[in-house]
Write a structure and sequence with these properties.
single chain, 322 residues, mainly alpha, 2 domains, 5-stranded mixed sheet, 13 helices, 5 strands, 5% strand
């Protein structure tokens, strides 16, 4: 048997290194296609944004998450592969390492650049006026003012979220509209939307095939969910008026969670707020299939990682395979 044939045979049967390479070629694309099949079920939850938002966030992040987990597990467990005894195996390991490192660094750089404007705004933000700060304390959120041009009312910062309000916004909104707008942003903070949004952005960039429909669905659903929570303690007309007023001169950075949301859905949001009954909520019969389907996609996406870890545990128990 030649050295090349022996190297390939060892890699085929050792599992860890060659398996991780194959998994990177099969599992993330398969996860992407499976997520696209689930989108119709998630879309049926449009009347239940409190459920739709987290499920859409998971769907948007799943292909990238499967890629990340498979690549990291393959790199960590490659040390036990017999492939590394051969130059061909070491070459495959180098390909895996470079491919994974490039994807992760690329996603991190894109995320860092996307949040640059938010970081600049946070550095330039000033303490809120006593009246605005008082509303923030009542709602349980930190509020700061910025002198940026245009209207801005948004949550910035994934780990220490702060509501940023521009001077133009404060001069435009009435007292009731300002309270409603800040109530909306407080709902985002309580729902951890800034952190979830940052994670969705990062994992969506990891894999070349982005599930853009799921990303848009998450963005729309989180705004609808925040609207519903905000009107529990604020007038819905004030909130609708604030959304329209801020959207006309919106200057929110891309990576923030802004009050006006996506312009394409602005009219629908206002109609729901002004409607007497609003949209009907999705039933448990609709939630169940969507949740089960998404769980099945996640199981498929992370199965190679679980298999690798179980195989490692089997090999290391007592120092031999049991």
């Amino acid at each position: 048997m030649s050295d090349m044939t022996q190297a390939i045979a060892q890699c085929l049967f050792s599992g860890a290194l060659f398996g991780s390479l194959c998994a990177l070629l099969v599992v993330p694309p398969g996860t992407y296609l499976a997520v696209r099949r689930v989108l119709a079920m998630l879309g049926a939850l449009d009347g239940d944004p409190a459920w739709q938002a987290p499920l859409a966030a998971v769907a948007a992040a799943l292909p990238g998450g499967a890629f990340f987990a498979t690549a990291v597990a393959g790199l960590v467990l490659a040390w036990r592969s017999q492939c590394l005894l051969y130059p061909e195996g070491r070459a495959m390991f180098a390909v895996l390492a470079m491919f994974a490192a490039f994807a992760i660094v690329r996603a991190a750089v894109i995320s860092w650049r996307r949040h640059a404007e938010v970081r600049a705004l946070l550095r330039a933000a000033l303490p809120a006026s006593p009246a605005v700060a008082r509303i923030g304390r009542e709602l349980g959120v930190a509020v700061r003012e910025v002198a940026t041009a245009g209207t801005l009312c948004a949550v910035a910062g994934a780990f220490r979220p702060v509501v940023l309000v521009s001077h133009d916004t404060l001069g435009l909104l009435s007292g009731g509209e300002l309270r409603a707008a800040l109530s909306h942003e407080a709902a985002h903070v309580r729902r951890f939307d800034p952190l979830v949004g940052a994670l969705v952005d990062f994992f969506a960039e990891l894999f070349p095939l982005k599930v853009l429909e799921a990303v848009r669905m998450y963005c729309d659903a989180r705004e609808a969910a925040a609207d519903r929570r905000a009107v529990r303690g604020s007038d819905r007309i004030d909130l609708a008026s604030a959304i329209v007023a801020i959207a006309k001169g919106a200057a929110a950075p891309q990576s923030s969670v802004a009050l006006h949301g996506r312009p394409e859905r602005l009219g629908e949001r206002v109609e729901r707020l002004l409607g007497a009954a609003g949209a009907p909520s999705a039933s448990a019969a609709q939630r169940g299939p969507a949740l089960a389907s998404l769980a099945a996609v996640a199981a498929f996406g992370f199965f190679p990682v679980v298999a690798m870890l179980l195989d490692l545990a089997t090999c290391t128990m007592g120092g031999h395979r049991v």
